[in-house]
Amino acid sequence: MKKAFITGITGQDGSYLAEFLLKKGYKVFGLTRRTSTQNFARIKHIVHDPNLKLISGDLIDQHSLTFALNDVKPDEIYNLAAQSFVQASWEQPVLTGEFTGIGVTRVLEAMRLVCPNAKFYQASSSEMFGKVRQTPQTEDTPFYPRSPYGVAKVYGHWITVNYRESYDMFAVSGILFNHESPRRGLEFVTRKIANAVARVKLGKQTHVELGNLDSKRDWGYAKDYVEAMWLMLQQDEPDDYVIATGETHSVREFLQLACKAAGIDDWKSIYKHNPLFDRPAEVDLLMGDPTKAKEKLGWKPSISFEELVKIMVEAELELEKKSEN
Ligand code: NDP
Ligand code: GDP
To answer: Among 6, 29, 152, 182, which one is most buried in terms of CB atoms within 10 A?
Structure first.
């Protein structure tokens, strides 16, 4: 039985990846950090699976990572844990650097000491392209991060490449563009909009307050993207890949389509601008070129932008119908 170790298993991607690997017959080990109340909402349906084991540790605690890997001796390591919210990275830049940047080195160091022959996946981000130097963005597009989060991810990317080149470790960096699902955190714009339009439809609130509607993102479906992570670790040679849909859409388009999916005729009637959600430095446009992933991994997205919006709005309508608040 192959063994996979996932940091960030309680997050959106970690939960989908754990499901995916359990279905593939892996024994899955997930790192969870100590919190005052358990945060297992996204993994509650698999937490009692006999092939899933949770191990306590934190990206900030080197020994906890070394001990965890020593216990597990995994074949594959997926480093998904991070402070993943761009806006919060201006409020907590040092913590973001610790978790999202240096945390990668800690996991790589633990792997180098304990299981150097394992395969390592680093969750890199399109935010590294920031103020984009070319469109669409490929594996060769220069980075120009625009937030402490983006800067930390650039560090994580290069330390992964560096460990591959310095120690001949199988370490890959997946440069994933935004990917969403009903399990996305409520603070991200897609889930925030999907939830708000569902609540407006059900008469629970009257409007949604947003920042910049003009920014454009290449939004895909999280379930498709975790498969790409796994595919990268099944290759003979370690390499870096852009994972994206190749399309870009504005926040405004997301809001318009979400209103349509909820049966709200006039999107403008429910929208208010709130400068609190504008960013000190914005990433205006992201659009990835997934050609390399298509050709070498045989990967392609299965869900269109319109379908993604619909999936998210329908999930929120269902959730909000059940909840009393
Ligand atoms: P989430 O924010 O949903 O999940 C982050 C996970 O990291 C959670 O399980 C969280 O645990 C864990 N975590 C945070 N800090 C620590 C720490 N110090 N020690 C241990 N665990 C920690 O992110 P996603 O699932 O959306 O993203 C997964 C990864 O992919 C992240 O690295 C993100 O930056 C990156 N990424 C995501 C993209 C996207 O569009 N979703 C795009 C490109 C990259 P807890 O539950 O306790 O908070
Ligand atoms: P990001 O691409 O990782 O920063 O993902 P987000 O979902 O947080 O943001 C995507 C885009 O939506 C960014 O350009 C934000 O500036 C924009 N945006 C506009 N209004 C909001 C809002 O209310 N919340 C968030 N999170 N983003 C917003």
So the answer is: 6
Kindly report the backbone phi and psi dihedral angles of residue 193, in degrees, each rounded to the nearest multiple of 5, phi listed first: -70, -45
* Domains: count for the chain: 2
- Ligand 2 center to 180 CA (angstroms): 12
Q: What is the CA radius of gyration of the chain?
A: 19
Same domain membership, residue 308 and residue 173: no
CATH code at position 265: 3.90.25.10
Amino acid letter, residue 66:
T
Q: What pLDDT is stored for residue 293 in this prediction? A: 98
- Residue 296: inside a domain, yes or no? no
State the distance from the centre of ligand 1 to the C-alpha of 156, rounded, in angstroms.
Answer: 13
| CB of residue 279 inside a 6 A radius of ligand 2 | yes
Indicate which atom in ligand 1 lies nearest the CA of residue 15: 25
> What are the pLDDT digits (tens) for 196-211?
999 999 999 999 999 9
pTM higher than 0.85, yes or no? yes
Residue 295 lies in a domain: no
Rounded Cα distance between 221 and 200, Å, is 24
91 lies in the same domain as 174: yes
* Nearest C-alpha neighbor of 108 from the set 98, 97, 118, 95: 118
